[in-house]
Design a protein that fits this description.
Length: about 150
């Protein structure tokens, strides 16, 4: 598929997701970087979002809980170009009943070429990158061109 460009603005739309065994680690990470995160629009799956709001006071657009469809809601926002960055602390050692949704979320983040951190070290690298505070152009699939060519 052909590619086009999308602008990720200085003020980013960031999705925060964490499996049950990783929620405390994500909460610590958010608390550590709270001053940087408050300048951005935050989204999260239900339980994670509510925990972040309660613990930090940051405004979070909470979706449904992950197993109830929250992962898919975040994935839809990624596909619509409404999420710029995904911080997803997932637990690779414990199977979850909604594992296909988890894989679909990570696949969509890859398809739409957004930065993804799946652990604290990578999240630290992302948030400390000079690009985190800058406007950035990324390549994404040119889906509109694909549809136009397909319908001709």
């Amino acid at each position: 598929m052909e590619q086009t460009r999308r602008t990720i603005h200085k003020s980013k739309h960031i999705a925060l997701v964490a499996h049950d065994h990783c929620k405390s680690s994500l909460l610590q990470w958010v608390s550590t970087h709270q001053s940087l995160l408050q300048a951005h629009t935050l989204y999260a799956t239900g339980t994670t979002g509510n925990l972040i709001q309660r613990e930090t006071g940051l405004a979070v657009n909470a979706m449904l809980s992950g197993p109830m469809g929250g992962d898919q809601q975040v994935g839809a926002l990624i596909a619509e170009g409404k999420i710029d960055l995904l911080i997803f602390f997932w637990d690779p050692l414990n199977a979850v009943p909604h594992d296909p949704d988890v894989k679909a979320l990570l696949r969509l983040a890859t398809v739409w070429n957004i930065p993804v951190a799946t652990n604290r070290s990578t999240a630290d690298f992302l948030i400390c990158s000079p690009l985190f505070a800058e406007q950035v152009e990324i390549d994404i699939p040119d889906y509109q061109r694909y549809l136009k060519e397909r319908l001709q």
